[in-house]
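Supplementary Methods. Inverse-folding protocol.

Structures were first reduced to a discrete structure-token string of length 416. This string, shown here, constituted the complete conditioning input.
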């Protein structure tokens, strides 16, 4: 297996992107074997400076989230405001198969780096772009992060919370990673065609579209209102059409998530588990549509909650497993990182840091006959500038001149 090549070996990727969504695409491609060169300004990708938001040390040598999105890449610092900096970029694109960016449309046009400006010069290039709100319409130039474009604008934050409370707590990157997976699929499809035909393509997606797509069941169903028993979001969990779907609180104060979309299959099993099969003799409480029509969903919800409060989470899980009822403990993050099932499936790998080993998350793509990549930390700011420029054909004197003129930059250890 050691001599098996990774699927994208030989593919060259230029990444001109910051934060999470598009760099995550670069990370996936790098894990699949592509050579990914990340371009940063002298200030660096803003993701390098978000440690206080996430409770991490502000240490460039222990930046777990930057490593998450940028492991296995090379890094170069370029000033793209200069003619020489753009010359370097164009020389990189001469050799590239894929160009990744998340610059906003108007910024790309100003720098002549939009697809229309590049497609004739690089006809085989796969040009990939991700924005907050898309490249058309009145809001195409608005800044968009996942909190705004993905969660808020799409209806997620305004719909999916307990009625009468507040939108749920969120963490960064959920929307970005969804968008990254969508963009990666498009990039690989376009790359396949480019390799077959020599014809490149522009691939794009946006956080708003991605968020609406992943919520399509709810958004499409909302068009029927309550005519067929549906709910108007946000709603009270006691009114859920599946009374056992809201998380249940156990005797020891933990929450379990029970699920089974087919009421006819799972309702009886769950009632058996909690010792309430007597409800199956009730013509209303044994029939989902009847419960909805007679407004007795809340009563059924209370029965479920009271039943599960009689045992601990550890006691309930084997009982439900025996009945083949899908169930999982609502785990906390510190429990997830110790999950044996996750480790058995290579969800995590260990990385050495100054403060000890930490578990980092792998990209969720498993190839049966391809070994896992050798995970390397993300490049420090400008760590590979000299080697990348040398590979592009620049002489040592030319590289030194670009560094002296601040056209290019190299890694310098912080003095504080």
């Amino acid at each position: 297996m050691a001599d098996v090549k990774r699927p994208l070996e030989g593919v060259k990727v230029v990444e001109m992107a910051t934060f999470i969504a598009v760099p995550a695409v670069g990370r996936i491609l790098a894990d699949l074997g592509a050579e990914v060169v990340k371009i940063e300004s002298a200030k660096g990708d803003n993701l390098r400076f978000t440690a206080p938001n996430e409770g991490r040390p502000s240490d460039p040598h222990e930046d777990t989230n930057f490593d998450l999105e940028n492991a296995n890449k090379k890094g170069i610092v370029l000033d793209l405001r200069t003619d020489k900096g753009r010359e370097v970029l164009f020389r990189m694109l001469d050799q590239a198969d894929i160009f990744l960016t998340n610059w906003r449309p108007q910024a790309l046009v100003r720098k002549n780096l939009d697809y229309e400006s590049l497609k004739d010069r690089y006809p085989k290039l796969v040009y990939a772009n991700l924005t907050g709100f898309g490249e058309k319409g009145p809001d195409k130039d608005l800044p968009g992060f996942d909190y705004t474009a993905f969660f808020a604008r799409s209806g997620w934050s305004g719909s999916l919370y307990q009625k009468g409370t507040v939108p749920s707590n969120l963490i960064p990157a959920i929307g970005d990673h969804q968008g990254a997976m969508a963009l990666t699929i498009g990039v690989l499809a376009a790359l396949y065609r480019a390799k077959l035909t020599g014809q490149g393509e522009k691939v794009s997606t946006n956080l708003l579209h991605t968020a609406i797509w992943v919520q399509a069941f709810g958004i499409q169903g909302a068009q029927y209102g309550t005519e067929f028993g549906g709910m108007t979001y946000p709603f009270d969990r006691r009114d859920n059409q599946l009374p056992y779907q809201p998380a249940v609180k156990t005797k020891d104060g933990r929450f379990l998530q029970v699920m089974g979309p087919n009421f006819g299959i799972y309702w009886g099993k769950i009632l058996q588990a909690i010792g309430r099969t007597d409800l199956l003799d009730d013509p209303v409480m044994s029939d989902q549509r009847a419960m909805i029509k007679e407004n007795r969903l809340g009563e059924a919800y209370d029965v479920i909650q009271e039943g599960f409060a009689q045992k601990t989470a550890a006691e309930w899980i084997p009982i439900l497993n025996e009945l083949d009822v899908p169930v999982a403990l609502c785990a906390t993050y510190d429990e997830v990182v110790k999950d044996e099932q996750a480790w058995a499936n290579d969800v995590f790998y260990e990385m050495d840091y100054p403060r000890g080993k930490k578990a980092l998350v792998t990209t969720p793509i498993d190839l049966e006959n391809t070994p896992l990549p050798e995970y390397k930390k993300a490049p420090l700011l400008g760590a590979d500038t000299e080697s990348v420029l040398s590979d592009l054909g620049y002489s040592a004197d030319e590289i030194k001149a670009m560094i002296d003129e601040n056209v290019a930059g190299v890694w310098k250890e912080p003095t504080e």
